[in-house]
Amino acid sequence: DWDVSAPFRDSPAVVVYHPDKLGHPFANVGFIGWIGALTGQSSTSMAISEIGVSYPDKSFGKESRIGVPFTFLLRNILQFDDTLNASITRIKTAHRTCDLILGVGDGKPEAETVRGFEYSASVANVVSDTDLIPVNSTWHFPMEGVVYWGMDWLCPAYNLALGTQLRKWHGNITMANTVRDIVSIVQTGNLHAAVYDLTTQEMAVSFCKKAGDNSTAPMYAYERQFSVLNLPALFSEPAP
């Protein structure tokens, strides 16, 4: 969810990197010319997500504008980290900056888990399904095997909407019903939206309508057609 009036919407791209020696292949969902990462998936069955925090609570502590840009930190997770534990170490030891919520998933058979992060210059709190925060039984209720936030930290309406749809499909969440009945109902992912299946190494992705498109097609990524990418096939493309 970024500014859809900015030029980002006119240059959407999924860029697939094939590092020769420095790291492993990964797909970066973003824009032409974008070298950081907000959304993406790697050949090691790892994936990232991020949302800025405008409504934190006191547990975030202080922010800073001096440190490692978080978009480079997230790219490094995709390019270099082989496990969720490696990503946890990277995040906790980084010279962090602004208030964010991060997500890192690891779909390898020995892992198959996801962790969220309360992220700021002051803290890097790792969040699992058993210690979901902020605690609120009305609008941010825990579910087994699920870590989630809707749009922001203290954001009752979006957290409740997302939690309600996740609970509706709990135990049977698929890429198809996430696109059809979770992302689109919650209305999250206006500039671009991605849904990962880390066990099959597939990614469904959609982008906002371009500024010059005067058709009656839907505007925002979450309400538009998604394309499913076979990432192992893309990662195995031979060098030219």
Could you describe the largest sheet, including whether it forms a barrel? 7 strands, antiparallel
Radius of gyration: 17 Å
N-to-C order of helices and strands = EEEEHHEEEHHEEEH
Query: Could you say which overall geometry the principal axes of the C-alpha atoms support?
Result: globular
Q: Segments where pLDDT lies below 50 for 5+ residues?
A: none
Indicate the proportion of strand residues: 15-25%
The tally of strands reads 10
First and last CA, distance: 35 Å
Structural class: alpha+beta
Keywords, separated by commas or semicolons:
three-stranded antiparallel sheet, 240 residues, single chain, alpha+beta, seven-stranded antiparallel sheet
Q: Care to describe what's here?
A:
This protein is α+β, with helices and mostly antiparallel strands and 240 residues long. 21% of the residues lie in helices and 24% in strands. It has five helices and ten strands. It has helices at residues 70-80, 84-93, 156-168, 175-186, 231-235; strands at 12-17, 26-31, 39-42, 46-52, 100-106, 113-119, 124-127, 192-197, 202-207, 227-230. The protein has a seven-stranded antiparallel β-sheet. A three-stranded antiparallel β-sheet has the order 8-9-10. The protein is globular and about 50 Å long. The termini are far apart.
